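Hi R.,

As promised, here are both runs. First protein below:
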Amino acid sequence: MFFRKYLAFVEAVFPWMFCCIFGWWMDRLFVEFGHRSTDSPICLHSDLQYVRWHQFVTATACSAQIIYSVRIRRTQFKREMNILGVVNHHPCLVHLYIVQAILCVAWGSVIGCLIDVSPWLCITFVNEYRATISATAIIVIIISLILERKLWTFTLDRAIQYDSKSLVI
C-alpha cells in the first residue's frame, strides 16, 4: 500500500486549504496596516474583516481539496493495480473516496480550530469548544487512516481475486 506519512496531512490540506490559510493571514495583515472599512470589528477574536467571505472560501476550498485528494488516491490505486498486474477489473472505490473526504474535513476542522486567524473562531461554539473539536478531529483522522488502510487492502485483494478468476474462465 502507498505509505501515508504524517497522518496524511499534506494530502488533505495542500494546495487548496493552504491558499485559504494564506488568505486569512493576509486579511489579518491588512487589518493591522489599517485597512478596515468600519471601526467596529466583525470578529473580536481574530480581528478579521471579511469573516463570512473567508468562511465561504474555506468551505469551497475544502470541497476542492476533497476532489483533488480523491483524484490523487484514485491515481495511486490504479498505479498499484497496474503494478500487481490487474487489468481486467476496475473495482468500486467509493468507500475510499468517502474516507478521503472525511480526512479532508477533519484536517480542515483541526486547522480551523487551532489557527488563531481562523474565521471559524468567530462562531461562539467553535471558539469555546475548539480543543474538544480538534481532539475529536484527530481521533477521527487516526481511525480514518486505519480504516482506509484496511479498505485499500481489501479492495486490492478483491480486485486481484476477481481478475485471476476472469483469466481462468
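And here is the second one, sequence first, then its C-alpha cells:
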Amino acid sequence: MKLDKVDRAYLETCGFSEKDFPQIEAAGRRTKYSLSSAANGWTYQKITAKDAEKVLGRRLFVSGLSRSAFHWSAVRMADNGDKVFFDSSSMFRK
C-alpha cells in the first residue's frame, strides 16, 4: 500500500514522522483484516483491505493500519458500530 500526501499529512498530525511511513506501507501489504458487524452476528469474518477502507473511510483505515504497524494489531469502529480488526502480527514474527 502506498500512502498519499493526504495520508502522510494526517499521520504527521497524529505524531508519526517521515521515517515511520515505510513501516506503515509495509503493514498495508501484510496486514489481515476482519469485520465484526450486526449483520454477521458480531462474529469476525475476513475481509480485504479495500473492504476495510469502505467500512471505515480512509482516515480511520489509515489510523488503524498505522497503529497495527507498530503494535501488532488494532481495532477501529465505524459510525454504524461495525468493527474492523487489523492484524499485523506477521510483521513481528522471526
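A quick note on the second one: Helices lie at 5-13, 21-30, 49-56, 58-71. Let me know what you think.

Best,
J.
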